[in-house]
Design goal:
With about 325 residues, the protein is an alpha+beta fold. It contains 13 helices and ten strands. It has a six-stranded antiparallel beta sheet with strand order 1-2-9-4-7-10. It has a four-stranded antiparallel beta sheet with strand order 3-8-5-6.
Length: about 325
Amino acid sequence: MGTRLLAPAVISRQTRMVDLIDQLAPSEGYTQSLLDGVTLMRSDHALARTPALYEPSIVIVAQGRKRGFHGGQTYVYDAQHYLVLAVPLPFDIETEASPQEPMLGMSLRVDPTVTAELALAVDESQPHQGVRPQTMFATPLDERIGDATVRLLEALMSPVDARLLGPGIVREITYRVLSGEQGGSLRAALTQGGHFARIAKALRRIHSQYDHELDVATLAREANMSIPAFHNHFKIVTATSPIQYIKAMRLHQARLLMIRNGLSANVASERVGYESASQFSREFKRMFGRSPLEEARHLKNVLNLASPVRQGATEPRVLAS
C-alpha cells in the first residue's frame, strides 16, 4: 500500500490517539476501558492470519494495520480507515505491528437499539433507498470521527469523565458512522425489513444462545422462510452456511472460555453445547490449526492473558489483535 501525505492536523490527531491508547492499554491483548462496550486493543508483534470473531462493532485503529478476510474480500483498517460490522461475524484477521510501532486500537460495541434509533433519525434527512445492506465494511476515517475518538480517549482517562461524557461521545461517533460515506449501507442493514433483517435476527439469536440446541429448521421457521431460502439468504449475509456459522460461534466461544476463565477443553466444550469432547477437539483443530490446549497456551503467551479477564470485561470477541 502506498504512503500518502497527511495534513499536519491529521498527524497531530493521530499522534494524540496513539499516545492516549498507549497509556490506556499498556499491555498486549485487550483492556476493558472505564466505559462498558469500549475495549482497547494492543499488539506489539505482527500476528499471522487467524480465525476471529467480532461482535457488532466499530473498530478504530490509531497505529499499525489490520486486515480482515471474509467472503473473498479483504478489509483494511488502519490509521486512515475504520471497520464496521453490523452483525456478529466470524472471519480471518492478520495484524501488522512491531515493538517499535505496536498496533493500537479501540473497539466500540454497536448497541442495536441505540444504533437503529439513530439510523432512523438520519434516514429522515439522508434516505438510503436503493442502498444495499452490508454486514461489514472498511471506510476512510474522517476528521469528525477522528476528533470525537480523541475526545472519547481523553474522557476514558478519568472515571468521572468516562461516566458523564463517554456515553454521549460514543453516541456521537455512532451517528457520524451512520451518516458517513458508507453509512447508508449500515443504516439499511439496521432498519430495512425483509430478508436481511430476518437473517440478522437469527444471527443475534445464535450469538446469544450458542450454548442452546439450535437447528436450522427452527431458525428458518422463526425467520418465516423455507429451509432452502433461509440457507440462501444466510449465506448472502455471512458467506457461510447456518451449520458452519453455529459451529464457528461455539468454537470461538469455547476458545474465549479457555482463555478468559481458564477452563479445560472438556468443560469449555460442554459449556458451548458439544456432547462429544473428541468431536470438539477435531473441529477445533480444523478451525484454529492447533489443539485446544496448544491454542490456549499460544494465545495466553501472545496476548499476555495468563490471568483470566475480570468478570464483566467486554472484548470485541476476537482472540488475536
